[in-house]
């Protein structure tokens, strides 16, 4: 099959691309800076890049809160319209476990993005995942550059992005069944437990400071808004194993 992976160089897009290529599929990587340049904020390049594709995986993202709406909601609208024009039969998108329960602008954009896909004109599959291991590690590393790491109590359940990539590759091969697949990491624990593992694993001496997230956002997070004990697919690679693999040439050894 020929598949376009939008955001194919990102934390999720790169392992999706690798999983599809490993299975012998032809992958077009679409980003603002790839061989097939597209810009989701304008739609530029989309129609040409999607023409002739059997499926499109939408895995773009923005770190800018101001652009979240434009890249994810506007971007999804533009992608779906281009897919409809050139006849792509299957759109696959990524959402976040619990996003509708957490009052935060980024998650509101994700909820709207998901709605567009489900109500849209193209056959679809949604994958809802928990936070990726490198996302948690990057967050802590950014804070540690200022000498501190926040250690809140709220539950998080990081998952290996490669395992999520494999779920996408399966879903591409299964075709547009209009279903939502949830994928979560092996352990739901307070973020502060992962902070301790991260400090051990990286040797960071950044000061660990307790943090209480205020308001409705804090309440939703403390109530386990971003975790699930009944995912369709439970990842096997723990945060500790993933961290260890970052400093080793050995593949990640999973628990039995
Ligand atoms: N990170 C997590 O823990 C997590 C967990 C669950 C779900 N998700 C979801 O997974 C998706 C991907 O997140 P990620 O963390 O993997 O992203 P990421 O690592 O930040 O990568 C973003 C990708 O999007 C591309 N991109 C950014 N702006 C673009 C634009 N205007 N037009 C076209 N391409 C653009 C980037 O390439 P260029 O910069 O070259 O354009 C890059 O390939 C998001 O929908 C996110 O909500 C993330």
Automatic annotation (TrEMBL):
GO terms for molecular function: protein-containing complex binding. Transmembrane segments: none annotated. Residues 7-132 form the NAD(P)-binding domain. It comes from the Bacteria. InterPro entries: ComplexI_NDUFA9_subunit, NAD(P)-bd_dom, NAD(P)-bd_dom_sf. This is Uncharacterized protein YbjT (DUF2867 family). It comes from Mumia flava.
């Amino acid at each position: 099959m020929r598949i376009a992976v939008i955001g194919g160089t990102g934390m999720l897009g790169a392992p999706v691309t690798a999983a599809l290529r490993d299975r012998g599929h032809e992958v077009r990587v679409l980003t603002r800076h790839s061989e097939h340049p597209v810009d989701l904020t304008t739609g530029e390049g989309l129609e040409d890049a999607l023409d002739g594709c059997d499926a499109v995986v939408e895995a773009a993202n923005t770190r800018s809160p101001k652009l979240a709406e434009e890249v994810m909601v506007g971007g999804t609208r533009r992608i779906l319209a281009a897919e409809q024009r050139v006849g792509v039969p299957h759109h696959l998108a990524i959402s976040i476990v619990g996003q509708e329960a957490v009052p935060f602008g980024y998650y509101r954009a994700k909820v709207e993005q998901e709605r567009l896909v489900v109500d849209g004109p193209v056959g679809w599959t949604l994958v809802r995942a928990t936070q990726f291991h490198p996302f948690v590690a990057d967050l802590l590393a950014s804070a540690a550059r200022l000498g501190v790491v926040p250690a809140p109590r709220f539950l998080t359940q990081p998952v290996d992005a490669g395992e999520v990539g494999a779920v996408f590759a399966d879903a591409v091969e299964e075709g547009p069944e209009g279903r939502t697949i949830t994928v979560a990491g092996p352990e739901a624990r307070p973020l502060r437990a992962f902070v301790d593992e991260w400090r051990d694993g990286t040797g960071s001496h950044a000061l660990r400071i307790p943090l209480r997230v205020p308001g409705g956002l804090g309440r939703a997070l403390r109530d386990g808004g971003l975790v699930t004990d009944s995912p369709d697919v439970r990842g096997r690679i723990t945060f500790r194993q993933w961290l260890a693999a970052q400093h080793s040439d050995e593949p990640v050894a999973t628990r039995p």
